[in-house]
Design brief:
By secondary structure, the protein is mostly beta strands. It contains three helices and 19 strands.
Length: 244
């Protein structure tokens, strides 16, 4: 399966949602239905200024990509561009927004809505492996940075692990071809454009737009636009078999 996360879809699907005692904005950049095995989603969450999202967990593995504003998650400060990973049934938080609020993408290979506060964990938390990782901030390349590239460069920002988790930042010079690696245990990967343009067949993706490629999909050809590309690759593990 290949799915696209686009700014246009996000603009169409932006709406207000209730989150505990607050109102947030949520915009669906990528939608794939609600299949319980494979239904990748990318949603932009706009958390209001000075709000606090209590410690909680989700039932699916997820990445969060913090792209605007400031805040903290637990004891760790957040600023653009920070990455946070939490496995299914792994608690994290509180997620606190700074005075200007904070915006972040939530990215999953299986659709899920809602959260479970840790206060309800005794009834709803399941025994099993817990997994989290965090990194950032990652520098976003300027046009000058991209034009100065003479060869592709890859930086691992979350170590590539045997369970299929990892994250890389790849720089590709103008009109160059990208060859993302696959991790054997992963469910698939998200590609997120940080700067420049990603071209795949007749599709062009710009800043913060994304693509999901499942593990069983034949890899298409990926090219950088004429001015170069900075790309984030997020390798998403499969959900642990002990979880339903």
């Amino acid at each position: 399966m290949i799915r696209l996360g686009t700014r246009t879809n996000g603009e169409i699907r932006r709406r207000t949602i209730p989150v505990l005692d607050d109102s947030y904005f949520k915009a669906e950049w990528m939608e794939s239905g609600s299949d319980p095995v494979l239904s990748p989603t990318v949603a932009m969450i706009e958390q209001p200024p000075n709000s606090v999202l209590v410690p909680h967990f989700h039932r699916q593995n997820q990445f969060q990509l913090f792209v605007e504003g400031s805040g903290s998650i637990g004891p760790s400060a957040l600023s653009p561009l920070s990455i946070h990973y939490a496995g299914a049934y792994t608690g994290y938080g509180p997620l606190v927004a700074g005075p200007e609020g904070i915006k972040y993408f939530t990215m999953r290979s299986i659709c899920e809505t809602g959260l479970v506060p840790i206060s309800e964990a005794r009834e709803k938390m399941l025994r099993g492996p817990k997994r989290h990782a965090q990194c950032g901030p990652i520098h976003i390349a300027s046009d000058v940075d991209l034009l100065a590239l003479t060869e592709s460069q890859t930086e691992v920002v979350i170590p590539l692990a045997d369970d299929g988790l990892g994250a890389e930042v790849i720089h590709v010079p103008g009109a160059g071809t990208l060859f993302p690696q696959r991790l054997t245990a992963s469910a698939g990967f998200f590609l997120v454009v940080l700067a420049g343009t990603l071209i795949c067949a007749d599709v062009q993706l710009g800043s913060l737009e994304s693509m999901y490629v499942s593990a069983d999909e034949v890899l298409p050809v990926f090219d950088a636009g004429k001015n170069g590309l900075q790309l984030l690759v997020l390798h998403l593990p499969r959900k642990e078999s002990v979880y339903p």
